[in-house]
């Protein structure tokens, strides 16, 4: 069934189709309409879930930790400050190996107060042990959220599905909503290996001494290392059933490109549009979309990043004192593998500032001028000094 | 699974920290520096009972409304609860730990309640199958009765010889009926003497002799103390000057003597003196009791003294007779000397010393001397009195000596009914041990006695005096089962586990385990915190140093 | 009560609580009353640490460790998860100390109370952060020594009145309990178990190392806390119906204070203040109890 819905509503539809059993969330812009819609479909009985309406995001995640420990499927959504307030519990969820799915509608972190988009909020949670996907369309949001449950439950790790606040969350698009029966075949109910159960009284996540702790982190790391394959397989199966394809790294016009820009989220759409326009104008430019950040699709990235091309990464985020998170991660990956490919670092669109076609053209112009060799941060769209 | 698990291989570990192994490998008992021990310490009531009653035991049963079991337990050491409930001086009450808290437990009334219950219910004591042993008991007083009863219960064939026509001894002939109703005595003796042959009018040395006893496997001698001590004054042999005990025996044998309006002097301060004075008063006499020390030194039981004082009987302290003369007209004139208290004598009491020139006279028709009694052992001329007050029988005919046991007032014990009962039961146990070829062993060998410091008073509330007094007023004398149970409920259970569950409930380490036999401490895990001992209301649980 | 024999579970032995720990006395009686159809949710704290270390546990029922401020919400989540699987009969027992309840978990506690989540929340109150080494919490009483209210800087504020804060949420059942009064405790736990909605038990949990008291005195201190009116035993139904379940004898508070080293720096004036404040609060409690009766009579007229 096709419908014109917002990004946030695509989430709600995915949650409904995934037959989530316990939802807990706290209102925060721009996530709020997800909670509103879920309240409606839980209230009406369209979805047979308990929506625990908590007093904070900390409690939202705590509630899901409790619920997920009993073996049910759980979901929450948040943004920025809310995600940061969950921070402690994100580690807990992954250390406890609970397949909680969290949608983060990307919003810049205050101060100063802002409700507008950048991706610093979710990227700042990169060390918490959540899988992370970044979507650019409402259809992708719906499909990824459904797959997120399947992947998370298979790996017993939590998963974060991210997309840009307002630019995507509040934009309506045509979305093909799959049939429930098809989703039920694709995503059966959760089968937890261990759970809180009075017939098998176990104790979960108790004190662990130095003699055992490290092994749990090793196992988590190993799970993330094999996660890439599970993710690829899941989306392949999804494609076979539903006909829509998603890759961890997507390349456009890269084969003969001289300059290539890497981007994620809504900015990626602008880059895609600009690249097509520039191609029409005869420029040999290309575009790589980063869809999956945790685990970082290292093999794929190494295979697509080739010497002799001027690369730039568009970061809509900032780790102060270091720069863009995507840039740093990719540079570190290349460096680790003795790869001589150089990457230019472009920071743009913080706090919801528009990233325009002109901005992208400017970046490609800079890349042409050798910006990839420049290790300094190149700010795009910033006001000039006097 | 009782082991600390060490993962050698990462693959043995679960994906997340899910625990299913017990903690029981963690033997926290190793933390302990002192250890709780369930000790049964002797409660002061049990310790002080001359009859050896398990008072705490039957109090507990009364508390639980199990009168039948209480009767069984009580009569397992004292066959005469109805009697003792009336005539015993109850040192258990004087020693009761509640004495200093509010008011001592009224064991006397509870014992009487149990005894009367036994009479009312016509309970029969169980008699064992007869064994091929026979014993003779000389004297049917409380000691002889107790010995005969327990021997018979254990299967021994018993014959009691007594110089009187009825059994009971001092109970029948010494104690006035206002203290011990004849009916009660009769009923209790019927039960106690069931299956026992009683030979009346068979005084040892007069009606029977050693030859009659040779064939018995054991002989228990309990002929009591009948010879009144002499005052040692001139005129003691005058008519009208008599032994107090003899007077009591006459009255108790049914003589119709009347003392209407007669003046009577009773000399002495013991129980006999009190009984004589009170009996004479009841026969219409105007009585003066004269004692050479003060009320504080009177050897009579406190209760007797209190009752004496409640009656219109004149008491004269610090005076001793020096001479009795017959006046014209037959009145007796007794001269007394005033006394003062000097240094303590061997009994620990102040020695009375005469005050020079303090003589005075009292006129009376009758004078009863009650200054103590001695046993009459004229049938054993060979016996010698020892320095401790007892007798040496080593020169008695060997055929008898080897199976001779002594009890009751012949012994140097205080001459009380419970002492007599205790000596009788003890003799029966010793005789049985001998019959069975064993060395006699006391059934319980506890030496430590609980005191007020062992009690955790927080667990007890003071009695509501008004309510208590109305239920237990001394003139009420009769308890119903509910009142008895309520009174028993006040018991501290000094030194004895009352199964209150405190040690079990308050153990943080689940180390006090309860089973059918009571409680035990699991030393594998007991950390020695000491809460159990601290919270033991009666102090039967103690911490002892070390593991 | 239940046929749940705590002692059948030998794994209950060997827990690592300090000698004389009140929490362990309380937990065993509470679990014994609740029975095996119980799931524990516990935050950081003594209960979490002493239950055992991975892969070992002393708990006879499922036990979910959760972060410090997460108890109430996680318990609500467990409730939701169990309900979704048709396990409505299972009792969800949130078992948290005073720090997790009065302080870091207060917001979430208020929230689950307001939502009337079907949880039995029991706060074992040892009046400070004992597991981290005796730091003051908002449950620490006036004049108490802790490592963050050291000598010369003793706690100046009174203890937070958690029971009445929760009462103002109008929840079905609130009760205070003491390990020295096991029957009262078990009755209240049974009553709580039998009711639905958010139930809060505030249980007094002596801590020998934290209170600088002799381990053997834990129960004596707990009893004195009740009998001096410092920790009265009462219950509140539906937020308004207050009933004192054990009348305090009114033993002087000094008897209670002197058994604990944490109060050793109090001056006589401060002790008098504690006595006066205690009497005042207790009087208020009794008044609130009788007021209810009075208003009832008026209504019946």
Explain what the structure shows:
The complex is a heterotrimer of chains A (386), B (547) and C (301). With 386 residues, chain A is of the alpha/beta class. In chain A, 42% of the residues lie in helices and 19% in strands. Chain A is globular. Chain C has 301 residues and is an alpha/beta fold. Chain C has 11 helices and 9 strands. The interface between A and C is large, with 43 and 45 residues. β9 (203-204) of chain A pairs antiparallel with β1 of chain B.
The percent of residues in helical segments of chain C reads 25-40%
Strand order of the largest sheet of chain A: 3-2-4-5-7-6-13
Low-confidence blocks of residues of chain A: none
SSE string of chain A, helices as H and strands as E? EHEHEHEHEHEHEEHEHEEHEEHEHEHE
Strand portion of chain A, in percent? 15-25%
Give me the number of helical elements of chain C: 11
- Unreliable sequence segments of chain C: 6-11, 293-301
Work out the oligomeric state of the chains in this entry: heterotrimer
What is the β-strand count of chain A? 16
Distance between the termini of chain A: 55 Å
What is the H-and-E element order of chain C? HEHEEHEHHEHEHEHHEEHH
Largest interface: A-C, 43 and 45 residues
Which percent range describes the beta-strand content of chain C?
5-15%
| Outline of chain A | globular
Q: What structural class do you assign from the helix and strand content of chain C?
A: alpha/beta
Question: Which class do the helix and strand fractions of chain A yield?
Answer: alpha/beta
Overall pLDDT of chain C, averaged?
Answer: 93
- Gyration radius of chain A (Cα, Å) is 21 Å
Give the rounded overall mean pLDDT of chain A: 97
The major sheet of chain C is characterized as:
8 strands, mixed
Provide a count of the helices of chain A. Answer: 12
